[in-house]
Every structure is written in structure tokens, then in C-alpha cells.
Amino acid sequence: MKQKKIVMDAEALDRSLTRIAYEILERNKGSKELCLVGIRTGGVFLAERLRKKISRIEGADVPVGILDITLYRDDLRITNRKPKLGRTDIPFSLDNKKVILVDDVLFTGRTIRAAMDALIDFGRPKLIQLAVLVDRGHRELPIRADFVGKNLPSSAWEDIVVNLTEKDGIDEVLIQDSNR
Amino acid sequence: MKLTKKDILGIKDISVEEIKLILDTAESFIEVSTREIKKVPTLRGKTIINLFFEASTRTRTSFEIAGKRLSADTINISASTSSVVKGETLIDTARNIEAMNPDAIVIRHSAAGAPHLLARMVKQSIINAGDGAHEHPTQALLDMMTIREKKGRIAGLAVAIVGDIAHSRVARSNIYGLTKMGARVIVAGPAMMIPRDIERMGVSVYHKLEDAIKDVDIIMMLRIQMERQQQKIFPSLREYSNYFCLNRNNITLAKDDVLVMHPGPINRGIEISPDIADGPYSVILDQVTNGVAVRMALLYLLIGGKS
């Protein structure tokens, strides 16, 4: 029987995002030159939620972009799996912007490496910071997050699942035995 | 869903699901060509040979740009500057290219079936960029992409294809594709230019332009192939143009929001009047833009990943 445990419920998830929004503003001394870029698909919804929170706190709207990292993956050459390509939509210049990259789970760090390479192709940001809802460890690259919702030490054979209302109908973070 | 084929030889043997996957992927690639740095690293280290035995600007350039924007190395070989002029056979040329270990070969040839022969001979992915009067699958895909982009769908639309249907690989690939996707296809042209039994492909046939384009959503005008004029399939260009040139008068018969398409190169004033080619109904240049995205999608789906 597959073990499944809820590690964050809707309220905890929302509180984490509120705290991250404050931390982003504190670290960057406000929302000037700030923009959010969500990594498909979970990061997109989280970036949008952070935008709303920042707007509520600061009364200022920061632009939000969507990034699909498929074309920058480092495993395309070694697997025969061709991930479905989603649309990238960053309708503003990244030159001299403070870019907050947003993802749901930080794991090996390979997605973030790909995302940073992609961002650099869109311009020269002043800085890139990383916000994630969950940091589950097991890094394979020298990458760390600037803003973390929850540190969740996990085993490699466990899956961390982030469900979000926008795509799954419910807000929660689960830890469960792997399907792999 | 993924593309499991080694080659793209024709629309005839591509399924509806595969067409949708290719078009969806192509839509995502549009964005890459709008960036300041129009390049992604996806096909780094891959080699693509463009083997063109027939004249081409649009298709060859489009394939070359598609490959380069994906970071592949693209090499162009045209018949006039290759060993073909020294008498080398297609099969020998192909074997020599294969020995240099590319990942994909894009071929255009005047003989129908040439890409199919190559696909059997070599292990690399073959993409048909036009074989004789047989198929031109990437053109049909970019046409379908343009229709879907502008109309939001393909199913249920009425599409008139007008011109030299008999010699047109663009018409054939589009008929396969559009009927598969649920469009109603009408073909029109002088009787000499309509293949016998074309109704079996699921199209209706008219011999007057005015009848064919009445109330249609899309008009696809085909190029009159001047290079085939020696065969004297109609009395004069002037006469053809009198009966089959799309102009501001007859276009009013189509729907108000009709799209005018043309695979290029256009013969202004022969199959299409300049004001229509450059007018508000025309999506001819959108077709070219989408062509790059469709070819990027095919290259990604065929050779992105382990071979």
C-alpha cells in the first residue's frame, strides 16, 4: 500500500507564500525593477499568486512571465522521451530587471540551471533570485534558493507532489512513495 | 503522445493525433523567432543536411533557419553544385552523406518517391521537402497551422484549392491533411489540370473559380508552374488568368472573413492579382513565418533526444 502524507495544507501553503512575498520585498527594498518568472507548470501559478500578494502589500504591479525550460534541458540527449513543449511568454525586457524565478519544488537543481540559461537568452537581468515552495534537497548542481516555503528533507524514493487549486482543484503538498 | 516515426515523408501516413502534436509544438516555437537572441540549445551537436535537387528559396531557407535556431549545424547541398552534375546517382549521393553521419536529411527532388527511397536506404531521419507532384508535407503543416491560428479550428471549414491540381504536391498534401482534420475541400481548375478520379480523395470538383470559392472560409491559390508550360496544358497564360485569377471582384463571393493563402512564389497578375496578394485577406507572409516554426517542431520531434 502506497504511503501518502500531507505535509502542507492550503493554509500553510498560503502563509508560506505571504511570507515569501514579504521576504522578496524586504530583500529587494520594494518592488522597483522587480519581475516574476514562473517555471511551467507549477511555478506559473505560484508566480501569479506572489504577484497578487506583492500588489496587495506594495500597491504596485510587477510583471509576470512564463518560462518553459524544455528546450534547455540537459537530458534531451540521453533520454528518448521528448517532453511536450509548452509556450514561453515573457512579454517584457529582462535587461536590468531583478528577476524572481519561481518554481514549486527544488530538487536536483537541473531545472533551475536550464531556466537560468533560458533567462540569459532574454536579456541581462540585474540579478536572478530563486523562490520555491518546497526545497527537498538532493542537489546535483551548486544551486540554492533565496526564498523557501518549506524545507522538506526527503528520500530519493519518495515523491513530493504540489497540488494547486488552479490545476488540481486543491492546495496541498504531499509526500508519498515513488511510482518509479 | 510523441512522434515515433523515423521520417516525415507525406501527410498521407500521418495520423490526426500526430498532426495535432506537430501543430501544438510548432505554436510553442513561434516565440523563439521573436526573441532578440533567436536561438535555443536544443539540437546542439546535431547535423542536418539539406539536399535540394530542385530550385527553392523559401523551403530551403526555412529549413536552414529552423535548424540553426535550434543550434543544429545545417549544411546545404544543391544539385547544381554537387556531384550530381558529375553523374552520381541519388543512392550513391545518399550513401556518401550517410557515411558522414548526419542526424537528418531534408530532401527535395523532382521524382516522386525519392525521399521514400532514401528513407529505406539510410538510417537517418528523412524529411520530404517536396517530391515531384507527390507530396510537400511541411507546406501542408504550415498551411494548417496558419488556418488554425487565424480561425481557431480546421474542422468544419470550407477550403477551396485553385489552380494546377494535377501537378501540385502542395494540393495533394493539403487535401490529405485538411480532410483528415475535418475540413471540406473543394478543388478547381481547368479540366486539364484536374486529375481524373480526384473525388476519391474526398474533395468536390469545380471548373469555374466563381463556383468553387462561393461562401468558402479559405482560398488557397496555387502557382502556375511556368516551368511546365512547355507541355502546353492550356492555350495561354492570359486565358488562364481571365478565368482563374483571384481578384477584388470574384473574392466577394467568398465569406467576408475569407483567408487567402498561396504557397509561393506568386505570379502576380496570373493566379492572383497584386491587390489581393497584398490585401487584408492575405496571410501569405504569415504562412512563411509559421513555416519556420513547423520545421523547428519537426526537427525537435524527430531528432531532439537520443537516436
Explained architecture:
- The complex is a heterodimer of chains A (about 180) and B (about 300).
- Chain A has four helices and eight strands; from the N terminus they run βαβαββαβββαβ.
- With about 180 residues, chain A is α/β, with parallel strands linked by helices.
- Helix content of chain A is about 30%, strand content about 30%.
- In chain B, α2 (about 60-70) crosses α10, α5 (about 135-150) crosses α6 (about 170-180) and α5 crosses α10 (about 285-305).
- Chain B contains ten helices and nine strands.
- Chain B has a five-stranded parallel sheet. In chain B, strands 2-1-3-4 form a four-stranded parallel sheet, sandwiched between helices.
- The interface of A and B includes residues 68, 76, 78 and 88 of A.
What is the helix content of chain B?
Answer: 25-40%
Low-confidence stretches of chain A: none
Q: Helix count of chain A, per DSSP? A: 4
Helix and strand content put the structural class of chain B at alpha/beta
Strand order of the largest sheet of chain A: 3-2-4-5-6
A few lines on this structure:
Chain A has 180 residues and is α/β, with parallel strands linked by helices.
Outline the secondary-structure elements.
The complex is a heterodimer of chains A (180) and B (307).
Chain A: E1 4-8, H1 10-27, E2 34-39, H2 42-58, E3 64-67, E4 98-106, H3 110-121, E5 127-135, E6 147-151, E7 158-163, H4 165-168, E8 172-177
Parallel strand pairs in A: 2-3, 2-4, 4-5, 5-6
Antiparallel strand pairs in A: 1-8, 7-8
Helix pairs in contact in A: 1-2
Chain B: H1 16-29, E1 47-52, H2 58-69, E2 73-78, H3 90-99, E3 104-109, H4 114-121, E4 125-131, H5 137-151, E5 158-162, H6 169-180, E6 184-188, E7 204-206, H7 209-212, E8 218-221, H8 237-244, E9 259-261, H9 274-277, H10 284-303
Parallel strand pairs in B: 1-2, 1-3, 3-4, 5-6, 5-8, 6-7, 8-9
Helix pairs in contact in B: 1-5, 1-10, 2-10, 3-4, 5-6, 5-10
